């Protein structure tokens, strides 16, 4: 399991450490302890990789449901992930209908850190590679008159 230094436990007592302006914050909202454990195991390597730029925290989805809603998440669909940039109050939610995986979180954080993400836009709504392939296929096989 991840050490608290890598993926912390978000609470009202330590809220200020997650609101620090110098780093992004990745909030993981989980409704059960089993979900928390599974996601911590899944994303620990990513949390270590981005430790310099992103603070990870797990929050109780039931207790902090209003906060999750304020960050653009839909209530009742957990586990959920959202990245918040306290320095400019930008919010980047992850598609709540998709499983949270290390590779997805890695890609999401790279997109955000490279400045290619749009605040409020849900990450994982579509797969750019699939869209690109569909565009190519439709133009290749579609003859204009």
UniProtKB/TrEMBL annotation:
<protein>
    <recommendedName>
        <fullName>Thioredoxin-like protein</fullName>
    </recommendedName>
</protein>
<dbReference type="InterPro" id="IPR036249">
    <property type="entry name" value="Thioredoxin-like_sf"/>
</dbReference>
<dbReference type="Pfam" id="PF13848">
    <property type="entry name" value="Thioredoxin_6"/>
</dbReference>
């Amino acid at each position: 399991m991840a050490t608290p230094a890598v993926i912390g436990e978000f609470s009202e007592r330590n809220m200020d450490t997650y609101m620090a302006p110098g780093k992004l914050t990745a909030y993981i909202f989980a409704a059960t302890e089993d979900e928390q454990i599974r996601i911590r195991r899944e994303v620990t390597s990513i949390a270590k990789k981005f430790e310099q730029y992103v603070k990870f925290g797990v929050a109780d989805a039931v207790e902090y449901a209003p906060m999750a809603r304020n960050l653009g998440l839909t209530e009742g669909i957990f586990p959920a992930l959202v990245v918040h940039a306290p320095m400019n109050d930008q919010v980047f939610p992850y598609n709540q209908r998709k499983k949270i995986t290390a590779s997805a979180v890695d890609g999401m954080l790279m997109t955000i850190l490279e400045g290619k993400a749009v605040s409020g836009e849900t990450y994982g709504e579509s797969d750019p590679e699939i869209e690109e392939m569909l565009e190519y296929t439709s133009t290749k096989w579609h003859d204009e008159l």
